[in-house]
Amino acid sequence: xxxxxxxxxxxxxxxxxxxxxxxxxxxxxxxxxxxxxxxxxxxxxxxxxxxxxxxxxxxxxxxxxxxxxxxxxxxxxxxxxxxxxxxxxxxxxxxxxxxxxxxxxxxxxxxxxxxxxxxxxxxxxxxxxxxxxxxxxxxxxxxxxxxxxxxxxxxxxxxxxxxxxxxxxxxxxxxxxxxxxxxxxxxxxxxxxxxxx
Length: 197
Prior knowledge:
Oligomer: single chain
Strand content: under 5%
Structural class: mainly alpha
Helix content: over 70%
Distance between the termini: 62 Å
Number of domains: 2
CATH architecture of the largest domain: Orthogonal Bundle
Largest sheet: none
Order of helices and strands: HHHHHHHHH
């Protein structure tokens, strides 16, 4: 494994255990067992190291979503599985999730992060488009609907992270709430079909 890859993995582990504040170039160099100046040969700043962690994670997510997209599952099952991947990632790695989806300035500084993020979102868009083509979801433009689905998921995850996602508020879990949203969207299609009949 290259030193650069070791630095990225060490930074990811520090994120997982201590949040973004735990990631410093000095802490990462200590974790890898190199001099505190050595990381600068690979990353010009802490932000660039964090961007590399985010790019690597987006690449993993894109692979997972691509496997789902090209599977033999029905389109609705693909969408549910894709949402499950994103939800599980956010719940298991909250600091990394915030890094990927709540730090737009990192994307502006890193072309690689921008590229990997776009690839993962493109896979999700493809799954949504397939759902629309098979009449599981309404509409013909996938980007607006996919954006709304992602925004709803992010909002629910934020409520969960703040301890505000409770059955008392009618919200059992992020996954259950997203299933309800998909059911409502499918019901819109059923309602449209009934109105035309």
